[in-house]
Request: fold
Amino acid sequence: MKKIFGPLLAALVSAFALLLVAPSAQAYPELQLHISVSSHSVTSGATIDFSATSAVSCKWTATFAGETQTGNGKSFSGSFQAPSVTKTTVFTLTISCDTGSTPVAGRAIAGHAGNAVMVPKDVVTRSVKIVVHPSGQGAATNSGGGLPNTGGPNLGILGGGLALLVAGAGTVLYTRRRTTHA
Reply:
C-alpha cells in the first residue's frame, strides 16, 4: 500500500503545484497594430505620410507636434506637415486604436443574446520618433551610390587576417614535419 500511496501523493502534489504556477488563459488575443511612416528624418515643412492597420475596426487618433487627426475603420492613413525648427528636433508621432465595446459576429456565449459577442474595450498606442532638421541642413539621405558602409571589415583587416591564417598554417605544417622526422 505504501508503494502506491507515495507516488500517488507525489503526483497529486505536482499537479496542484502546476495549477498554482500555470499562467491564466487570455480570453481575447492582444490587439495587433501596425504603423508605417514615409520617413523618420525630414526637413522643416516636409510632409510626413503615415498609415496604420488593425485586424478589428478602431476609432483612430494620430497626434504629431500638437496636431491631431481622427478616423474610423480597420485602416487609417493621413499626413502631417513637419513644423519649422531652428535646430534639429525630435518629435513623436503617436497613433492610437480604440476598439470601444464593439459587437463581433461569432458563437453565442452563455448570458449573451443572439450571435453577437461584445469585445471588451481595448486601446493600443504606438509611437514613432521623427527627426526634423532645419530647412538649410536637410535630412540625412542616401545619395544612391551603393550600399552604406555599416561597419563591415575593410580590405586591410581582411588581408591581415589572411596573412595570419597562412602564417599559422605554415607553423603547424613546419612543426609536424620536424616531429615526424626526428
In short: Residues 27-133 form a domain with the Immunoglobulin-like fold (CATH 2.60.40). The first strand starts at residue 33 and ends at 37. Confidence is low (pLDDT under 50) at residues 105-112. The chain is about 25% helix and 40% strand.
